[in-house]
Specification:
The chain has 9 helices and 5 strands. Helix 6 packs across helix 7. Strands 2-1-3-4-5 form a 5-stranded mixed β-sheet, with helices on both faces. The chain is 47% helix and 14% strand. Bound molecules: zinc ion (ZN).
């Protein structure tokens, strides 16, 4: 199986998401017995996705992909911790995956909890939950110093995007291996937002300029 370039991978995801929003999913073929047998002996996922654990954003469904297509990491708030960096390194090195997408979404509960904690800190929050909030906090707390603090809906919307951009940045700088792959144009890391309302994915961060 040949390596799929980052641009082709992006194209496959965008087309898949359009199939999902137009309700013409091809998932029957993607999860067929034949596909299962084909992929049992090896995988070549064409993209790695760091998404949120939210039950409304199942990655394979929103991109209309099947067995063997996507290497998926899901964690509340699509945050980047060392284990996520290691998984991305693994996908790139082991399977030749060229595209990494940080996929956040509108109305993310982890972002909401972080904003809540910043505005009205709770003393007795669980230590483990706190570790998620701590990773999201640096990317969103600056927004509370802007006029957005008077408009909670706009604040939440901007915070989701700021957190996606931060995760993209953290992944890119996360390890020498990833930095080297990016420099050699063997890996592309982009940020995207899924809309719970429309089902559409907007790739808004880190896309190559058209024609370059
Ligand atoms: Zn979420």
């Amino acid at each position: 199986m040949s390596v799929i370039s980052a641009r082709d991978a992006l194209d496959l995801l965008q087309k898949g998401n359009r199939r999902f929003t137009s309700e013409i999913s091809s998932r029957d073929g993607f999860s067929s017995r034949l596909r299962r047998i084909e992929t049992a002996s090896g995988q070549r996922p064409f993209a790695a996705i760091l998404g949120c654990s939210d039950s409304r954003v199942p990655v394979e469904i929103v991109f209309d992909q099947g067995l063997g297509d996507l290497f998926v990491i899901r964690v509340a708030g699509n945050i980047v911790a060392p284990s996520q960096i290691g998984i991305v390194e693994f996908a790139a090195e082991q399977y030749g995956t060229r595209l990494v997408v940080v996929l956040g979404h509108t109305q993310c509960g982890a972002i909401g909890a972080t904003l809540e904690q910043l505005q009205r800190p709770k003393e007795n929050q669980s230590h483990n939950l706190h570790s998620i909030v701590d990773l999201i906090r640096p990317s969103v707390e600056g927004l509370l110093a802007t006029n957005l603090r008077h408009d909670l809906t706009a604040l939440a919307r901007e915070a989701v995007r700021a957190n996606i951009r931060a995760s993209v940045r953290n992944l890119r700088r996360g390890s020498a291996i990833i930095q080297q792959l990016i420099q050699q144009a063997e890996l592309m890391v982009v940020g995207a937002e899924y809309s719970l309302e429309t089902g559409a994915v907007d790739f808004f961060d880190g896309l190559p300029k058209k024609g370059s």
